[in-house]
Amino acid sequence: xxxxxxxxxxxxxxxxxxxxxxxxxxxxxxxxxxxxxxxxxxxxxxxxxxxxxxxxxxxxxxxxxxxxxxxxxxxxxxxxxxxxxxxxxxxxxxxxxxxxxxxxxxxxxxxxxxxxxxxx
Length: 120
What we know:
Blueprint: E1 19-20, E2 30-31, E3 36-37, E4 47-48, E5 53-57, E6 60-63, E7 68-69, E8 78-79, E9 84-85, E10 95-96, E11 101-102, E12 112-113
Antiparallel strand pairs: 1-2, 3-4, 5-6, 7-8, 9-10, 11-12
């Protein structure tokens, strides 16, 4: 004889936050891809994190810290390159250092004034 276990369901469960299911008749939910989230239960689709934020998990977007930036649908924030900076969290891009100032490292949150005897 072959035996099998019959699973009886009296109701369906909503997909948890961070998961989605766009189709009927499914037995499980799919996790949101990197850079997208569902913050509520029972969602049909994931939404992209806004520019200036990133997905820290499949259920939450968080603002990029100062010195870092992101485009839409980011899974991680990127550091501002040398010569650029951002003093604010949640930046979607970096600022160029103004005349008379410089930025010599990645991920800068501020600019440095050109020293005496130099120009920038």
